[in-house]
Write a structure and sequence with these properties.
mainly alpha, single chain, two-stranded antiparallel sheet
Amino acid sequence: MYFVRRILFAIPLLLVISLMAFMLCKSVPGSPFDTGRKPASPEIERNERARVHLDEPEWKQYLRYLGLVWEKDANGQWQHAPATWNLSIKYRNHDVADIIAQSLPVSMTLGLLAFLFALGVGLPLGFYSAAHRGQWHDHAGGFLAIISICVPSFVVAPVLILVFAMKLRWFPVALWESPWHMVLPSIALGSFFIGKVARLMREGMISAAQSEFVTAARAKGLDENSLLFKHALRIALLPVVSYIGPMLADLLTGSFVVENIFQIPGIGTYVINSTLNRDYLLTVDLAMLYAILLVAMNLAVDFAYTLLDPRVKYE
């Protein structure tokens, strides 16, 4: 019942998010028709406004976006008006569903690879630091974690291109055509999250190692490696799992910085272009996509809690 309630609660939550995104987009000054090199003529602008219903009141535009508008046809009969959530003001030859279907798999692939890279480096780094708490290994691991957090991806990406693509020529510079093209973008995007995963893992390991059941197991004579791997590790992963939800949602939607640097045709490019072009329909759709992913990942995290810690019960 807990997860059913969470899913039902997500519906009004997503409606509030869509309304806030819609209002924020409409509050931005400017028009979708004056962002090009040459402003549209009054007649063209009038026709385009009518096509996407920008000539209507904003409250009706929002209801039409949700598909909650009924209109009279030529015979005077009431009929349901098509929703505008699948329309784009600038991309006239493609609807939003096509844009997401083409770009989201690319961003999801990049995000998943960056996610695996961040966990593959962050978890062992945090575990190793906690196992050698107070020693130079711990200080070195903490320093690497801080460096990872402080250096943003738009700095890491050009350095990776300069060293591994241009000088050593181990990997391609840009584009998204083969597995070799995925290596540098995944490292650039995932490097920022290594430090956070490592710090959460370290704190979780230290806290779990001091818990009562681990102390009791240590008193029974179990060696330290068995204590850490068989007893403390499972509980230590809980803080990391809590962070994985929003982290994975963030990575799956891609990073427009990394995608722009490596010329990757992901969804991040559409996020920036739709904002700059005042394409509010596409902007709200992409904001809703991120919100849905975030809600879904948080539900998955709650479910993972029950698998990692039997003491966690949802009613």
